[in-house]
Amino acid sequence: MRMRLIALGLVLMMSGGAFAEGQWYKGVTHIHTLWSDGDMAPEMVVDWYKTRGYDFVCLSEHNRLQEGEKLVAISEKNKLTPEHVAAIEKRFGADWVTVKEEDGNPKMQLKTHVEMGEYFNEAGKFLMVPAEEMTSISGAPHVNVINPREQVPGRYGDPGMLLNKYMDEVHAQSEKYGVPMMTHVNHVNFSDGVSIEQMMQARRLQFMEIYNGHPSIRFEGSEKLGMPAEERHWDVLLSMRLPKEPEFILYGMSTDDSHNYHKWAARESNPGRGWVMVRSEKLEENALVEAMQRGDFYGTTGLLLDDVVANDTSYTVDIAEEAGVSYTIEFVGTRTGFDTSSTEPTVKPEGGTPRPSRVYSDDIGVVLATVEGPEATYTYKGDELYVRARIMSTKPQDNPVEKDAKQRAWTQPVRLVK
Ligand SMILES: [Zn+2]
Ligand SMILES: [Zn+2]
Question: Is 0.90 surpassed by the pTM of this model?
C-alpha cells in the first residue's frame, strides 16, 4: 500500500499541501543520561539504541543541552563506577575517555552532543537530534523541545502559564534560527500532574505524551488523585478545543523517558518500552520535526504498521502482522453535538496539589468502530469532529511496567471539523 498519511483540512493547508513520500524511521524523543539524572554515560546510551535498530535518538536532559564541560565523579558510590569507565574504554578504546582530577578525585568528562554526533551519525542510517526536557522547578509541567539551538531554562510557576512560556520561547527560537522545532508535554499525570484545564490554556499545544515507559507516570490515570488517563486528556482536549479553534490539533507521542540502564525490572525506567515511527522523506532533523508536525507518525510500545492512510472519506490502518499474533483496531473520535458539560473534579486539592481534572461526558472519545484483524478502514459518517486509531496486539510488550501489558500503538487524529 502507498505509504503516506494525508492530513485533512487545515492541517493540509498549513503544511502547504506538500506530503512527504518517505519511509518509516524509528526514534525516541525522551531519554536521560549522566548529563542529567540518567545512570549511564551518554555514548553508552546512544550505543544501546543504535545497536538495536533505532534510526534517531533525542537525549532530552533536564534543563540543559549536552554542551560545555561536565565532569562526573568516578566512584563505587556514584552512578559512574570504575567498572563503568572500564566498559566505556572497552567499547570505544582507551583514548576515548577523558579523566580529570578535581579536588583530588578522578572525574570523567562527558561527551558533548557534537562529539557523539561525529562518532554515531551516519547519513540515512542514524541521527542524534538535539533536545532538552524543560523541567519546571515547581514540579510540573515537563515539556520536551526537539531540535533546539539554545538551552531554555526551567522555570517556576503555575503549569498553565509555564506551558505557554516554554512554548512561546521555543517558537521565538525557531523563528530566530529559521528551523522547525517542536515541543511535547510530558507525563501529564506525573507528580502533581497537569490538569486538562491547564492544558486547555496552552495556545501552541500540538503534542503530548500518551505513553511513557517510566514506572511513576500513571499513564492510565489515577482515580485517587482525580487524574484521567493520558489518552483521556488527549480526547477531551481535541473535543473541547476543535469546535472553537478549527486550527487546533493534538498529536500523541510514545516515549521511553529512560533513566536506568544497569538494572532491568518493571520498576526501573529502562529503555525500549515506547517510541515513535516517523514517516519522513529523509533522516534529517528538520524533516523529522516537520513530518511530526504534519502528524505523519505513530506512537508504539512494540507493534508496527505498514501504513496509515487518512483521506477525505476514510481512515485506514494496515498492521505489519506477525504470525500467531492477533490484533484489534479501534477507531476513536467524538461526534459533533456532543455533551460539552463537565463537573467538578472528584478530588479536592490541598495547597494546590494534586492537580485533578474536571469530569467530562462519556460522549468524548468514543469507540466509533472495532475491527479484529491486521487491516481496517473506517469510513466517516460525517458527524465526527476527529478520528484516530488505537491498536492492541496479543503479543506481550518487552519488559513492561504493567504486568502482562501487551503491545499497543496509537495513530494520529485527523480533523473533520466543518
Ligand atoms: Zn519529566
Ligand atoms: Zn524525562
Answer: yes
